[in-house]
């Protein structure tokens, strides 16, 4: 693995039954807590939809010890942190991130609000109106309607088909039966044995443990409450269904009785379905002008069940090409099933998971630890993947005749090899000067190795960096040239993002800027690939035009042109622009 090998989380169970995860991460500047209650909207009695989400809201209203003006929300905002909560189908999460000095106060408030909620009827009435407003906004969202329609073919008895949002009419505050159900739900699930807590930060592990033991002590004790197993996802033994909706084609696969390692196997499968690389599925569909987008994601997973969604999108109506697109997907899936054990795929997946840990924030690490994500694809996950693919492939597999290929590896995930002549030019002590020299060399087509390196003046303890390169062009670049430049960088941006680097470009008047920010190790290689791509900014085949900007963004985009001298000249040729450009970096 790379030089930055993050420490492993320590897992233990406290005497009251609470599951605890601790991670000492010296590179971080903040601490985070992620608390999961193993109960969600599907664990609520059917008579009171929305009760779990309503309880989540009530817990933020303050306690006797920490009233509203000093509760967790107010405290975190006052200290410049972030805080939120989320009610899912089978769990409810509460999480925050704070500077180290303020972390103990945040943990004290988080634990207190879960252990000592007020449940005041007057506050419940006010908070119900907040929930009702959220419901109205949600119901008006086109995406919410599409999601509702997407799940209609599921088994009517499965809770995924039910209404769980909660509103003014499903939460009758004044009814004694509702109050009884609310308090019963809290007592049943909100106790130490049903809670997982993850703490992450630069402070010593022993200190994190002491904080956890101190502030979770007021939690009620009780046995782990078994959650009700739902009925099958699809009726009559079915395992897949298709929905066609204008510009969208949806394939949904329902799985039952999956092994534990299937979660990682599904992540692995989605990663390669979504891979936007030459020889892959979306690259082929885009080249044939059949699709503009593809997304594979797991919509639901619990107790051996999973619902996998494969969403295809197009610029126009999908009806005419739906069969061709579906056949291409199954043909690619058949090819992938013969390559699933390929060591390059497993190796890259492990590198990707490792890099995610290396660049994650404290809050992201805390969530990953709470969910117990594993860094790679185990032998058990490989076996689970084989079972998934066997179920997904139809008995009679269509063939497109296309020669599928494994995606080329992301060159920025593994540790870079240092060229023999790497290092700063004599007299340079700034990484930026080395970058500027590298940029000039690269675009003048010189063949010597890059002179880019990180100065010895850069602290060795950090792992983040930012690089800015600006070209002052002789004239404003034409919109077609800007689009071509952006299209050339788009595949590279995905690889860079996976490697922990945000790569972006922007234009302002006669200036064009390239920006990199994030994990410093892969930056030299990313910059080299970016500048090579910019030499010949021809749009890749099948590239779709960028989505139109909002009017205010269009105005801001063109505003710098009015500060330039009046001229009709625009640049439409990249080589002509680079030849006359001036450099900053």
From TrEMBL:
Residues 566-575 have a biased composition (Polar residues). Required for coenzyme pyrroloquinoline quinone (PQQ) biosynthesis. It is thought that this protein is a protease that cleaves peptides bond in a small peptide (gene pqqA), providing the glutamate and tyrosine residues which are necessary for the synthesis of PQQ. It holds the Pfam family Peptidase_M16_C. It comes from the Bacteria. SUPFAM superfamilies: LuxS/MPP-like metallohydrolase. Residues 464-585 form the Coenzyme PQQ synthesis protein F C-terminal lobe domain. GO terms for molecular function: metalloendopeptidase activity; zinc ion binding. Transmembrane segments: none annotated. Residues 566-585 are annotated as: Disordered. The keyword Zinc applies. This is Coenzyme PQQ synthesis protein F. Pathway: Cofactor biosynthesis; pyrroloquinoline quinone biosynthesis. Keywords: Hydrolase, Metal-binding, Metalloprotease, PQQ biosynthesis, Protease, Zinc. Residues 23-147 form the Peptidase M16 N-terminal domain.
